[in-house]
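Many groups now describe folds with learned vocabularies. In that spirit, our science desk offers one protein's residues alongside their backbone shape tokens.
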Amino acid sequence: MDFLQVFIVILAICLSSIDAIMFHLSPNQKKCLREEIHKDVLVTGVYELSDAPGQKTHLTVTDSKEHILYSKEGATKGKFAFTTEEYDMFEVCFETKMPGGGQGVDREVLLNLKHGIEAKSYDDIAKAEKLKPLEVELRKLEDLSKSIVDDFAYMRAREEEMRDTNESTHSRVMYFSIFSMGCLFGLATWQVLYLRRYFKAKKLIE
């Protein structure tokens, strides 16, 4: 039973995603972080910026279609959350501006981005649904199992898509090869007939 618990913990760590990152943002500069996330996945983020007199930082979270999922002008500290509608590339951008284009100190940005089962607050769920500790653990295992099934289903769908693409490419290459051989055969036949007529016209052959 201990081995099973250890295995579940390790598997949960591997499947869940916690991205805590810290970087410096210079005045009048923009930095973005991109990540691919599966469909129907809860994403949460906690950010905090150091003080920088006179500077304003704009935070935006967008998808690959430029849909704004979260926007904050004058961001200093806060949270955001959204659920993905489809598998996509998501981008978190921090852009700081200094009025008049002046110089200032770098801002230290701390971003803690979570998605999957790690983004869920099971304490809040337990309070809202009045769950017992054992029921909370069962809910975690249920969500973990669903995450595993979804990952396998996604990998299977990708494998089928890649196989279909491979078969389609193979068919196209085969038809193109047959077409090329037909063109070469037709060209060779035309050259033979043309040369035959040419030599006959010059009376070099009968």
